[in-house]
């Protein structure tokens, strides 16, 4: 044991880091659970649970209709044999070309003439006549033998007749033309010496020996020779001519058999739902063959190949769930998401299997429905709508593909049925996502039914059409499917919200109700925060619509983003209503801790009241990792204290991870900071909003979301329009004065004429009261904030501009511009007004 080397700590640390990285890359265990469930669901898709009919023989009478519950092919042996016979008949005859007859003819003619020239004696001539007579199988006369020695005859034979015969024999001459007439496919001339082949379609044009003999006889008759010489030439060439094309029937048959064996068997398809034999009908040979194939396919109830193919395709499709949806680059599916999908798939795949198994029984009960029509009533659209309320578009589309794929395989449907299921799912999700209230979902039953009918029409036309006898019943099935989808959406949504803790679209509708307990508590305990949240909610909703984000989620998230302030409302300026600022009695680090805590407390309230993950994430991310600069600067300015750490004065984050969280952050900062503007004109509002957006962008708070510069410009324009409506100006009306009645109130005068920056405010003209007791502005200007550098927490000025303090003069606590607290501020001087912002929040103003 002492010889075993221990793993160094450094190597162990590196291995642990590698495992940690692999753990981050690998999907959670819920994904593997989903994959296992999909593999198990492939089993019922590959199992045939239908009834088994009895075998019907040829000549028997069918006691019931036999309908094919699945498409299959059967082989027609008679048609296959007929096709093979046709292939054999069309095979061309193979003719072997031989060059021996041409050479043999030349040698034989020359040898005869040489023998005749050498037979000078009578007995030699008689011997020659006898041998030639036996060879030519005819009796030759002495005159014909004597004619062989004629020089004119020999020249004619060698110089005229032999070239003609040799030319024909070299081109190919048959024994008889009738040998190729049984072969309509022509002939193939094959040279046995070289192996070359030549296909001749018009085989009747080939010459045979009879045709060549007639041609030579005609040539002989035209020669200027005697009768004995002409008869001798006819006898020589008639006896010595042989064919140069010899039929090779063995090779021809071998080739024909090879091509016949390669012929594909003739098969016929029996479509699903086709009647194989009707009740009371006599079974024929073809029907018996169909029954044999039909029962053979049903003998093996489990299709292994179908199971493996379905499982593999399901695995490939499910990997699409691992890709992040658009608009949320870091959102990963959790274990509960995969468990929910596994349950959803199991329920609806088993429902489709039940329809497939009991379809014939249901059709037999009513007698009005075809078994193949019942598959259109499977409520795949309702399942997809349920998924669309939870997941982003890319993920609920993958879910729709999985549902359509499994249901199609389970009911043994075609590609057209798969398209029907998938398109119906996408149409249903479209209608659901456009619904702003539950009544809109109820109203969507009609357009959903119309869409299903149009998709069914396309499906049936691809499959060859449907019988009009069942049209009304089928339309009822489609309408029933649409109604069931709507009922499923309503019935299962609350159950899904309760079991899995999801925030569906309907849950968001409920959370928008201002009578929610959290919103009522905020209204009573933190009215300023409540009003601010309402404005931010409207701004977020309008901005989300401009950048194609989830408008309803933005609105609800904005309503609840500051619910943590309701636990300690007095520490935020919008809820102080002129009371003292408790931060004046606290050290900066404690003030920052209190401000930071409202995010954590808001998250705890969201979890307690089951607001959902999306709302909780918005609450956690609506400040990002912003720095509370006011208290940081205040801590840095304290004497005899070590330099503060920025980490102690930053929100814990994370930065916005989605478009919706980023929109709520921007709307929150823009709305709160816009309250510091004095006499906000359209130009000042536009300049202010542009500066805030640039500040947030340059600080890196939007680095982890998918907001683009185009989106920021659109949000800037949307916020500007909303704030222009919020800060619209009104005409100042003077109350009517009754000169006869004494005035009970002191005379007032507009402050805007005397003090820039307080236009529209009123104060007593001659009250003798100190500045602190004068009327406060209707909307605080330069209020104490702290969340992003100020006690209020939204990066605004640290104090309330009091009417008695003019810009540039010390206020109650000795800071510039009448702002309480010793904070360093950046003063932006506008015409007739003074607006102050935190340097960390408005860097580009």
Structural class: mainly alpha
Q: What's the assembly state of these chains?
A: single chain
Query: Treating each run of at least 4 consecutive H or I residues as one helix, how many helices?
Result: 29
Separation of termini? 72 Å
- Percent strand equals 5-15%
How many strands? Answer: 12
The backbone outline, from C-alpha atoms, is elongated
For the residues shown, what is the average pLDDT? Answer: 77
Helix content: 40-55%
Strand order, main sheet: write it out.
Answer: 5-4-3-6
Compact description:
With 845 residues, this protein is mostly helical. The protein is 53% helix and 5% strand.
Protein model, in words:
The chain contains 29 helices and 12 strands. The strands form 5 sheets. It has a 4-stranded mixed sheet with strand order 5-4-3-6. Strands 1-8 form a two-stranded antiparallel sheet. A two-stranded antiparallel ribbon has the order 2-7. Helix 22 (527-546) packs across helix 29 (709-726). The two termini are 72 Å apart.
């Amino acid at each position: 044991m002492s010889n075993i080397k221990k793993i160094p700590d450094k190597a162990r640390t590196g291995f642990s880091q590698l495992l940690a990285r692999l753990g981050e890359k690998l999907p959670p265990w819920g994904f593997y659970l989903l994959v296992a469930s999909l593999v198990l669901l492939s089993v019922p898709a590959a199992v045939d649970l239908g009834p088994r009919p009895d075998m019907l023989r040829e000549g028997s009478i069918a006691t019931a209709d036999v309908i094919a519950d699945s498409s299959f092919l059967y082989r027609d042996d008679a048609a296959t044999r007929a096709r093979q016979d046709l292939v054999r008949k069309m095979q061309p005859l193979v003719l072997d070309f031989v060059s021996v007859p041409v050479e043999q003819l030349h040698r034989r003619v020359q040898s005869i003439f040489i023998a005749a020239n050498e037979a000078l004696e009578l007995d030699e001539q008689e011997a020659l006549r006898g041998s030639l007579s036996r060879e030519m199988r005819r009796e030759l006369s002495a005159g014909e033998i004597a004619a062989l020695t004629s020089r004119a005859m020999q020249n004619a034979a060698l110089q005229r007749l032999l070239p003609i015969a040799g030319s024909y024999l070299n081109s190919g001459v048959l024994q008889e033309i009738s040998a190729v007439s049984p072969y309509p496919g022509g002939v193939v001339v094959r040279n046995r010496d070289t192996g070359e082949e030549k296909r001749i379609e018009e085989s009747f044009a080939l010459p045979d020996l009879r045709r060549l003999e007639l041609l030579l006889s005609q040539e002989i008759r035209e020669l200027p020779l005697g009768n004995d010489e002409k008869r001798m030439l006819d006898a020589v060439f008639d006896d010595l001519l042989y064919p140069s094309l010899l039929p090779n029937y063995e090779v021809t048959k071998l080739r024909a058999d090879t091509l016949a064996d390669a012929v594909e068997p003739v098969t016929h398809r029996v479509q699903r739902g086709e009647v194989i034999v009707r009740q009371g009908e006599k079974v024929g040979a073809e029907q018996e063959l169909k029954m044999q194939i039909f029962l053979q396919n049903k003998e093996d109830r489990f299709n292994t190949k179908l199971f493996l193919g379905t499982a593999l395709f399901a695995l490939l499709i499910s990997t699409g769930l691992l890709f992040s949806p658009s608009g949320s680059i870091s959102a990963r599916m959790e274990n509960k998401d995969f468990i929910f999908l596994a349950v959803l798939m199991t329920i609806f795949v088993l429902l489709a299997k039940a329809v497939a198994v009991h379809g014939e029984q249901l059709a037999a009960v009513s007698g009005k429905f075809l078994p193949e029509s019942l598959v259109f009533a499977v409520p795949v659209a309702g399942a997809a709508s349920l998924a669309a309320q939870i997941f982003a578009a890319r993920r609920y589309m993958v879910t729709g593909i999985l549902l359509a794929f499994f249901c199609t395989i389970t009911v043994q449907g075609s590609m057209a049925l798969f398209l029907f299921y998938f398109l119906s799912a996408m149409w249903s999700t479209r209608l659901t996502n456009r619904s702003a209230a539950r009544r809109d979902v109820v109203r969507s039953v009609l357009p959903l039914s119309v869409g299903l009918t149009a998709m069914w029409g396309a499906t049936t036309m691809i499959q060859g059409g449907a019988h009009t006898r069942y049209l009304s019943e089928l339309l009822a099935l489609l309408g029933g499917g649409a109604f069931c989808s709507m009922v499923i959406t309503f019935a299962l949504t609350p159950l899904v919200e309760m079991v899995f803790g999801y925030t569906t679209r309907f849950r968001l509708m409920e959370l928008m109700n201002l009578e929610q307990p959290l919103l009522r508590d905020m209204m009573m305990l933190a009215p300023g925060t409540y009003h601010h949240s309402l404005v931010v909610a409207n701004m977020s909703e309008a901005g989300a619509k401009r950048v194609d984000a989830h408008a309803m989620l933005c609105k609800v998230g904005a309503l609840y983003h500051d619910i943590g302030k309701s636990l300690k409302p007095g520490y935020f300026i919008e809820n102080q209503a002129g009371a003292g600022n408790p931060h004046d009695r606290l050290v900066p680090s404690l003030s920052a801790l209190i401000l930071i805590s409202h995010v954590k407390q808001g998250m705890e309230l969201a979890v307690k009241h089951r607001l959902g993950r999306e709302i909780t994430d918005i609450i956690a991310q609506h400040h990002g990792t912003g720095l509370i600069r006011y208290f940081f600067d205040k801590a840095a300015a304290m004497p005899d204290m070590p330099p503060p750490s920025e980490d102690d004065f930053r929100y814990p984050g994370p930065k916005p991870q989605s478009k919706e969280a980023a929109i709520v952050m921007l709307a929150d900062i823009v709305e709160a900071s816009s309250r510091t503007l004095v006499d906000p004109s359209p130009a000042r509002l536009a300049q202010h909003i542009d500066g805030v957006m640039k500040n947030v962008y340059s600080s890196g708070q939007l680095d982890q979301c998918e907001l683009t510069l185009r989106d920021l410009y659109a949000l800037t324009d949307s916020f500007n329009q909303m704030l222009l409506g919020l800060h619209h100006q009104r005409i100042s009306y003077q109350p009517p004065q009754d000169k006869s009645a004494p005035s009970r109130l002191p005379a007032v005068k507009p402050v805007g004429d005397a003090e820039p920056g307080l236009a529209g405010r009123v104060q007593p003209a001659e009250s003798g009261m100190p500045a602190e007791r004068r009327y406060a502005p209707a909307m605080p200007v330069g209020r104490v904030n702290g969340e992003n550098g100020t006690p209020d927490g939204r990066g605004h000025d640290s104090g309330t501009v009091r009417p008695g303090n003019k810009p540039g003069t010390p206020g109650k606590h000795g800071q510039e511009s009448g702002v309480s607290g010793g904070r360093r501020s950046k003063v932006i001087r506008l015409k007739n007004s003074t607006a102050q912002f935190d340097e960390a929040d408005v860097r580009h103003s």
